[in-house]
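Minutes, project huddle
Topic: does the predicted pose make sense with pyridoxal-5'-phosphate bound?
PN asked that the exact inputs be recorded in the minutes so nobody has to dig through chat later. Recorded below.
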Amino acid sequence: MSDLSDPGCAAPSEAGPELALETQLVHGGTLRSEFGETSEALFLTQGHVYRTAEECEARFKGEDPGYIYARFSNPTVGMFEARMAALEGAEAARATATGMAAVTASLLAQVRAGDHVVAARQLFGSCRFVIEDLLPRFGVASTLVDGRNLEEWQAAVRPNTKVFFLESPTNPNLDLIDIAAVAEIAHACGSRLVVDNVFATPLWQSPLKLGADCVVYSATKHIDGQGRCLGGVILASQEFIDKHIHTFLRQTGPALSPFNAWVLLKGLETLSLRVRRQTESASIIADALAGHPKVRRLIYPGRRDHPQAELARRQMRAGSTLVAIEIDGGKAGAFRFLNALKIIRISNNLGDAKSLVTHPATTTHERFAPAVREAMGVTEGLVRLSVGLEHPRDLIRDLEQALA
Ligand SMILES: Cc1ncc(COP(=O)(O)O)c(C=O)c1O
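Predicted holo structure (tokens), as shared on screen:
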């Protein structure tokens, strides 16, 4: 049992690191108070009081590991961080208010004016904004490459390149990027690789084991997975967190609220069950719809006809909870299809227990010029299906009647 009178920011786990993933998801990081509560306690407090001025001084000096202020950390947030670190096999984790706060902090914290960043051009719209628009405003140049083409990554390297950034599978068209190969190129030029692992989830892909230096998640997606709250997390070695992330987060303040951390902890308990079931259903749906006369192209990393099926087998443990479908008839065809769905709802979110469908060209990727969208593979007829926990038979019926 952990002693709450002497908490550490990186909460010690009651579960050992040798335990299976499902056990870590339920017990990892648990800090139990003297009341012996079953469920994780929600410490809804902005700060903490100290027994003496000397203790307070020691906390601020970092000589006493206790909590100080919720912008820095909080016992409930600490439990979430410790459980995420156990799940990812990372030495350290820091939670943030949103996935975008995690992405932005992981990039900004590593660079200064005069540096250069290389990223895949196939990115979620807001991530691409950070790379393409925000960083250059502060004197950090960026180059976008076709993430699938290793020669482009190599050719983009400059003497001042500090960070590489990618997501795989990509949002929304489920391209894959060879994480181990990009990590090798990054390390050869003294750079570091950050991977946004949202689409793969911690269950199906482990970027740190493939050579990445830092992994980020929007916990809003599968980790909550029940449409309730926003959250994010940055995972890396202790050295990386101490050197780049710790002070940046403390001083800039994108902290996760204790309440949301508590919701996310409860989400983690069922993550494995949900993602396994959603992936199974996505795979069944992909097989059922491939070859449908109204489907021009179906992309699913778990299928043998995915253009990078060999890479999927090499770096992922299973497909995905998402399927990308190019509908016949461009935007009009896609809209007719979306509007005809009865169970699957139109939304911009993903990873939820409820199946959700998105038209990226008019939502998540709306701000890009049509030619830029085309280059990212975001066509007018493309829809992104996030498969939920409904019975796959009902989902297939819904999809087929909407296609008809
Ligand atoms: C790949 C990817 N990264 C980051 C984010 C941002 O997450 P959040 O909405 O929690 O800020 C999203 C959101 O859709 C995403 O799809």
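Observations noted during the meeting:
- The CA atoms of residues 118 and 143 lie 5 Å apart.
- Confidence is low (pLDDT under 50) at residues 1-14.
No decisions taken; revisit at the next huddle.
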